[in-house]
Amino acid sequence: MRTTLHSRQVAYEETGNGRPLLLIHGYPLNRMMWESQLHDLADVAHVIAPDLWGFGESESVADTTIGTYAEELHDLADALAATEPAVVCGLSMGGYVAFEYFRRYKNRVAALILANTKAGPDSAEGKAGRDKSAAVAREQGAAAIAESMLPKMLSPKTYASNPELVQQVRRMMESASVPGIVAALMAMKGRPDSTATLAEIKLPTLVLGGADDQLFPQSEFEGIAKGLPNSKLEILQDAGHVSNIEQPEAFNRSAREFLRGLG
Ligand code: MLT
Prior knowledge:
Bound molecules: D-malate
Order of helices and strands: EEEHEHEHEHHHHHHEHEHH
Number of strands: 8
Oligomer: single chain
């Protein structure tokens, strides 16, 4: 589906009825990473999954920041009349956007699901890595980014034994636009430290991680859960960085239970 926000086209998926569940994709992916959640959670929520600016079929915007992604999500929810407090669910970069969404639009958040993400900012080395990746994207395109990231996106077991899923994730990454990739890298490089935000999030929060995440260590998920006053931590087995794609049943079971528990 498509709509226009501030004269720019945004693509999104929408299923179900009830409390809004906003699904925010990771980098360099798009709304289709949530295919299974859009299908399986439609009976418990009004599920909305946009392509962030510059990804999938959403247009790029100049000077993208994590804040402009949060604003996109907020304005899309408005456009879809999903204005009651939402459950905001972000995976990895989507988690960075979820923290920002909470800071900007507290009264529009009922609960959070933070999957395979971290609260801290980029280290100096991490920031230099963003610049290197942006140069690779500009010079060699999205395929080169996909090639280097792919083995780290999935658990070693899935990477070795499920070529179909590997291809699915590869296709999604390769379809990202170079301007979208570069803008997201710069947005992540400049993102604020969300560590101090944790104590302010008194809302129910489900923290999900993959036992075999090759990008973020489990200590990141544990740290988020410890810093949050009202959280539940679940580490999904046989799941890497994109845990919702790799273990959709376990991910959806946890999310469903959490949504139902909110009443
Ligand atoms: C993601 O999966 O969204 C990214 O790997 C996050 C990051 O690079 O910090």
